[in-house]
């Protein structure tokens, strides 16, 4: 962090190599838009460099980074609320399969439909539930780290995750 | 232990985040409650499916260079950012002052005010005025906007 505060690009590069994937993944899952996720990731690391002097040593670097990306996502979403999300460039399993959609196995079509409903349910979750779920994804952050990032208690994180997951399950069972 | 209580803990249990006491209670309950065991499996399901069917695209390789370019631009034109930020702040302050002034003026127009008139002249003054205008004071002397009205003789 001292290197970063002094404007050392190598220090920023180190942080980028360690955390860029995670930042991009959170932004993408939250916004479901590849271009906007890239913009968010770029702005997070530019902010890290420009505000390194404001970093308080008592907080963990990772918590500081996660807070920046969470705030960027929440603010970004509210600014472009009316805009529809552009579909990701990553092809769905239906697109990569050799046969046309109507000839594909039923289970694959069903899976794709469920995933679409799940994405819709995820985007419909309250922001804090959605962010808590995304931070937990792939076992990236512990409950204590999520609590530090969201500036809430551990029991609040437990409650947020329980409600988010229950809402997803209910949505899928409709 | 009741299912409703255990189910509130299932999410944290699945994440391995329960303290030892609650973890033991949940495990004992799950050992004989198929309903809660099924609920636990349902909680795990959605996310695994989303990861499988909706993968995150890879981080673009040119993103690091975009970051460097933006930082270089900022270094070349730091005055622009400072100027822009200061201008924004000044504009906000000016807007607040103008709005406050406009609100004050609007309120003062709408509030019924007293009509300012000259102080009522004393009787001797009234007589003097009446004599000057060759009139007789036959009734109350009305003070209209600083002028005295008398009935002429």
Topology:
The complex is a heterodimer of chains A (174) and B (153).
Chain A: H1 2-5, H2 9-31, H3 34-50, H4 61-79, H5 93-96, H6 106-124, H7 127-136, H8 143-150, H9 154-173
Helix pairs in contact in A: 2-3, 2-4, 3-4, 4-8, 6-9, 7-9, 8-9
Chain B: H1 3-14, H2 20-32, H3 34-53, H4 63-76, H5 78-110, H6 123-132, E1 135-136, E2 142-144, E3 147-149, E4 151-152
Antiparallel strand pairs in B: 1-4, 2-3
Largest sheet of chain A: none
Average of per-residue pLDDT values of chain B: 75
How many distinct helices of chain B?
Answer: 6
What characteristic shape of chain B results from the CA principal axes?
flat
Question: Share of helix among residues of chain B?
Answer: 55-70%
Query: Strand-residue fraction of chain A?
Result: under 5%
Distance between the termini of chain B: 108 Å
SSE ordering of chain B: HHHHHHEEEE
Assembly state of the chains shown: heterodimer
Largest interface: A-B, 45 and 29 residues
Shape of chain A: globular
Query: How many beta-strand segments of chain A?
Result: 0
Briefly note the structural class of the backbone of chain B: mainly alpha
Rg over alpha carbons of chain B: 43 Å
Widest sheet of chain B: strand order? Answer: 1-4
Secondary-structure content class of chain A:
mainly alpha
């Amino acid at each position: 962090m001292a290197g970063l505060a002094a404007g050392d690009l190598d220090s920023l590069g180190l942080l980028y190599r360690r955390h860029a994937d995670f930042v991009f993944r959170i932004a993408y899952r939250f916004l479901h838009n590849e271009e906007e996720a890239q913009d968010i990731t770029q702005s997070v690391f530019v902010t890290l460099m420009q505000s390194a002097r404001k970093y308080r040593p008592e907080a963990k670097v990772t918590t500081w980074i996660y807070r920046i990306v969470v705030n960027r996502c929440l603010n970004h979403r509210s600014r472009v609320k009316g805009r529809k999300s552009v579909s990701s460039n990553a092809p769905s399993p239906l697109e990569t399969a050799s046969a046309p959609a109507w000839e594909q196995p039923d289970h694959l079509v069903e899976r794709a439909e469920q995933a679409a409903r799940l994405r819709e349910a995820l985007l419909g979750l309250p922001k804090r539930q959605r962010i808590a779920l995304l931070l937990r994804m792939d076992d990236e952050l512990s409950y204590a780290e999520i609590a530090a990032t969201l500036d809430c208690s551990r029991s609040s994180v437990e409650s947020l995750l329980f409600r988010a997951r229950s809402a997803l399950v209910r949505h899928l069972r409709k | 232990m009741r299912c409703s209580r255990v189910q509130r803990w299932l999410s944290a249990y699945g994440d391995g985040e329960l303290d030892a006491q609650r973890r033991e209670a949940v495990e004992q309950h799950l050992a004989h409650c198929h309903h809660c065991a099924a609920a636990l499996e349902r909680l795990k399901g959605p996310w695994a499916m989303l990861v499988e069917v909706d993968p995150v695209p890879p981080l673009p390789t040119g993103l690091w260079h975009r970051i460097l370019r933006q930082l270089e631009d900022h270094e070349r034109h730091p005055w622009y950012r400072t100027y822009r930020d200061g201008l924004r702040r000044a504009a906000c302050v000016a807007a607040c002052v103008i709005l406050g002034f406009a609100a004050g003026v609007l309120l003062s127009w709408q509030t019924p005010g007293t009509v300012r008139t000259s102080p009522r002249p004393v009787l001797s003054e009234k007589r003097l005025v009446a004599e000057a205008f060759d009139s007789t004071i036959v009734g109350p002397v009305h003070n209209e906007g600083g002028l005295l009205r008398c009935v002429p003789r």
